[in-house]
Amino acid sequence: MPLVAGVDTSTQSCKIVVRDAETGALVRSGSAKHPDGTEIHPDHWWDAFREAAREAGGLDDVAAIAVGGQQHGMVALDADGRVIRDALLWNDTRSAPAAEDLIHELGDGDRTTGAQRWADVTGSVLVASLTITKLRWLRDAEPDNAARVAAVALPHDWLSWRIAGYGPADSSPLGPDLDALCTDRSDASGTGYYDAQASDGGTTGAYRRDLLRLGLGRDDVALPRVLAPSEPGGVAHPSIAGGAVDGGALIGPGTGDNAGAALGLGMQPGDIAISLGTSGVVSAVAPRRTADGSGAINGFADATGNALMLAVTLNAARVLDAARSVLGASFDELSDLALAAPAGSDGLVLVPYLEGERTPNRPDATGTLHGVRLATSTREHLARAYVEGMLCGLADGLDALRAQDVPVERVLLIGGAAQSPAVQEVATQVFGLPISVPEPGEYVADGAARQAAWVLATAGSPGAGAPEWSAAVARTLDADPRPVVREQYAAVRDLV
Fold first, then answer.
1. Which residues does the annotation mark as catalytic?
2. What range defines the domain where residue 346 resides?
């Protein structure tokens, strides 16, 4: 019974699942927390990975391993493989002015033209989340650090590199081989300097070093080699994983977190996943990506060779955390309070831009509460307004996908906050669609494990497809449209 490991190095923690390569059955798991913040030294990810591996009973017996990770984070390495400065994470908005500068520059001074050109080439209009904007910020704010950059990696690339045994000479078995860095199309497509569709006429995707030069000011840096969906990126160092397996543990190409979740859920074209984690994500799988010049939709690659369109908000589960803090309520109590108020909360509306916003692109916005009256100044009304506001922002993302002619056949509600009875009920009202809620799971880690199993299968049988693992649906909820919720939200969402 060969075993595989899937790793999710997310914003908040590292989670590892060890599964049967053939059936997908869970054998064991472990997790460890990451520090809070929007800039983190990657060594914390490495420490958390080692702790999670120990909690999972070790990785000596796994035949393959793959890493899914938070997208966009800038890991800048010097020629000795050392991290130059703390990694700027996707939710660090200091590079918002840099994003605007880059859009105008590619458009020869015209923002609309520039936005469409970025979308045409990379699938995304730049916002502060994307790696290239952080490189421009580094160039302008920390020129000495920018001059030291010898390689740029993403969080999952860097962790896979460390698992293979590479890193600074004094803290890794194999030393700083920057050419050993590798990644996949899904994560590369979120950098802002990778063309996943090779619009220059190629077929396999390509880095756009001209865009990298526009961001960093130069392009003489190493970038991770982009692997095919089931192509191994090397072998784990035996001190880290696969030490008890003949030939060691193959390392999969890895994946961005949303693409990992899509793979873990077995998403196909027509499926929509609404994920309520640190960020809120509406994602759809399709044969080709969009090129949405409005910036509402990011057109990335997925982990299988398809495209993955995303509408992403900065504010999701943490909106509920904020509500719990304000109300002094537990997760269950918040749900009960919200369900005790009517749909629309009698006109109380929260626009939940609590940490700025990515979609729409309002990095400096703050949250606003509208319709405060004596009658709505209750804990129940406030709880419901927070839940409705969070979901309305994501409903706008679903509308944006529809506007790009993305088919909507099945809606999956996932993420930690998706387990709230209030979130489930309000989702049927806000989206006005049937909602399928899969069994709770670590979908990103599961997707990484499935990719590892695919890599293992391909090694034994070239051309093998991804294993047929399935995510069980716990329940399906009927649509219960309540138009008043979206109407009220639409009336005030731009008053920020």
1. 257
2. 266-433+466-496
